[in-house]
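Summary for the steering committee. One of the milestones for this cycle was to obtain a three-dimensional model of the protein with heme C bound, which we needed before selecting residues for the alanine scan. The sequence and ligand used are listed below.
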Amino acid sequence: MNRSLVVLAGLAAATLLQFAAAADRVSTAAGNAPHGGQLVSTCSHCHGQQGEGLAVSRFPRLAGQSAAYLAKQLGDYAAGTRDNAVMVSFAKAMSAQDMADIAAYYASLTAPTVTPDRTDAKLLDAGHKLASVGDTAAGIPACASCHGPDGRGQPPVFPYLAGQHAEYITAQLDAWREGARRNDSDAQMSSLARKLSATDIAAVSAYFAQLPPPKPQR
Ligand code: HEC
Ligand code: HEC
């Protein structure tokens, strides 16, 4: 083989390797939900058989959340922009394809919801107000402007909040305030969370938790 051909072949191989490495980091491949379903037996101990989560333990609902959002979260745990000892160790052991498959599986599920707790009408009213119009004086935008009307989510970027466990919503808002979660582009959530008072957080958490979650559609 003449010298320039060898160089060309080498370049081509190097380019292919780069492509392979990039594809491994950001999987654009569609997830295979049935295969994902074979990988989640451990996950269901905490996230439930149908992805319903567990309120008291702050284990989030995953059912019907968008596949793109779920896959991003697994990638973020692996990359270290979201802290949680258990989730980081699971995510680090997964390939990008496993993440996509598991995400597609949970995105396809419908799960039972928690019994809506509507005992504190004043708290729910305050939550509804923050969610739908925000608080201009405090510089807090309406949650609905990103998370959609009634917390139904706007896939692929904005997760649904309707029917998510209140305890988990509160834990995430705290995690952004404290910097344990820093995976939101342009610090959209972290800057907003710092403007919320403890009462605001209790109000939006209680409000979103008692709404019906959207049906899986993506
Ligand atoms: C021991 C309990 C436990 C197990 C087992 C577990 N998780 Fe989690 N998972 C959690 C907790 C707690 C959180 C919230 C952590 C945080 O605050 O970031 C979480 C968060 C997540 C999130 C982010 C959800 C969101 O709305 O942002 C995804 C996705 C997820 N887990 C998927 C999985 C998968 C897939 C498995 C199995 C490979 C798994 N989990 C196993 C407890 C668990
Ligand atoms: C400017 C857009 C924007 C606004 C306004 C906004 N959010 Fe978010 N929110 C996001 C994005 C983006 C994410 C997902 C970040 C990521 O990729 O992890 C998110 C995620 C969340 C999550 C985590 C969900 C999960 O499953 O872990 C909670 C809880 C949340 N937002 C609550 C709120 C509340 C409450 C409000 C209103 C007070 C609000 N958000 C307003 C952009 C926004």
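Key point for the committee: The pocket of heme C (ligand 2) is lined by residues 60, 72, 130, 140-141, 143, 145-147, 157-159, 161, 169, 172-173, 183-184, 188-189, 192, 204 (CB under 6 Å).
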